[in-house]
Amino acid sequence: MHSDKKCEVLCYKSGKPSSLSVQQSKLIAERIREDYYIHLIADNLPVATRLELYSSRDDDEKKKEKDVHFEHGYRLGFMDNNRFYLHNHLSFLLHYHHEDVEENQEDVYRVVRFEVIPQSIRLEDLKIDEKGACTLPDPASSAPQEIDSTRENQLLFTYSVQWQESNIKWASRWDTYLTMSDVQIHWFSIINSVVVVFFLSGILSMIIIRTLRKDIANYNKEDDIEDTMEESGWKLVHGDVFRPPQYPMILSSLLGSGIQLFCMVLIVIFVAMLGMLSPSSRGALMTTACFLFMFMGVFGGFFAGRLYRTLKGHRWRKGAFCTATLYPGVVFGICFILNCFIWGKHSSGAVPFPTMVALLCMWFGISLPLVYLGYYFGFRKQPYDNPVRTNQIPRQIPEQRWYMNRFIGILMAGILPFGAMFIELFFIFSAIWENQFYYLFGFLFLVFIILVVSCSQISIVMVYFQLCAEDYRWWWRTFLVSGGSAFYVLIYAIFYFVNKLDIVEFIPSLLYFGYTTLMVLSFWLLTGTIGFYAAYMFIRKIYAAVKID
Fold it and tell me: Membrane-spanning residues where (predicted)?
């Protein structure tokens, strides 16, 4: 602490420089070509490379402002005219804050920033004395250290350390890493989403309320029952609208997992928005999400059990087991297969086997019993009160128009929720795949609220059109159609892969698409559940408002 070093040599055994074999040289050249970064940590702070960009607001050269940005980690090397150069000298700049202490106490220093300036310096230009200290050459006269991938390379690894006092306090030392330069884009995206959603809400509310009032007034007129009978519309399917769908157990299980996800996402984003999940505690967000998903099993089980009872289901134990294992089983399976590939590469990014076992124990020891508990109480509770009775004989469904096709419904319903959140999605993708920090949970919370509102509205509109076309099979269809924005997330993920990322190898591509599959599946469950419950409430409301003979 607090001792500067001009230039120190590493790995300098018996006065000989380090040697890279042909194989090592080839690997390093390949990694430089693939833009590899190196990450170091000092006192729990990740290293950052300072980038000074000139903002061209003023034409006058002297008045140009410097925009300082920080890049996470530093580049392994660089390429110039198809030659590879390695960063073999690191100049560390450590900023410290001098704490106020009483007179007779020892000085207390806190590291508040960790920067690096990587340099490439040729072996011949470095002068070394007997003690292992070195002298750096003048930057103008020295050449960079080239790595020739066809032969052995001799080189030296050196570093220097400089300490600088700073008035940044310990509490705000992460601000450098978390300051986002494009907050305006976020505000623009949110205002854009809010305007779209309000515009849609206004139109929907006007159309639906006016149409419904007209429908209900017509249906409730006692005197012209004969005329009404000849009409078509949603009242005609009143005897079939609450007819249980095919596979009620799977539907209720998926919706139970959707409720679990919804509660988890809501709490995680809210807690992170309050600043309780700092990136300085690594993995806190993921750990919190896992634990919350396990504990939210009670609510997932309760909603799934109650819905299963409403859909005339009887085998509640099997239903509870299905709810506890269907979605988590798919997630665990995909993660395990991907992890096997990472293990095969001997990567440090692999999840250790004991952690996998611990997750399995949590799943079967915490989540499964809680889902059973919730399911038991949900199944015992009074089923949802449907306002109309179901007929014995199912009504014939007329031939549907082309635009009532399920896939077209998914495409139409997905555009709006996706449009409301795709800018935020870009930042989340950048955070996951391009090594950025994502810390704008306030924005994310707003976007999540907008997403919930837009999914609910679009789902109500789609189910209204479907019932007007006298098609009463809305249970599964609403769940699938409301999750339509997940299809657009998948398309966007493919677009992002092709345009933004330079991934050429098999395993990184497999990882990208494996994790994307998990994201898309979870997003579909989440949005599908939101849409389903909105549509279900809407249907119960409208059928309760008409008089049925």
Answer: 187-209, 253-277, 283-308, 320-344, 356-379, 407-433, 439-467, 479-498, 510-539
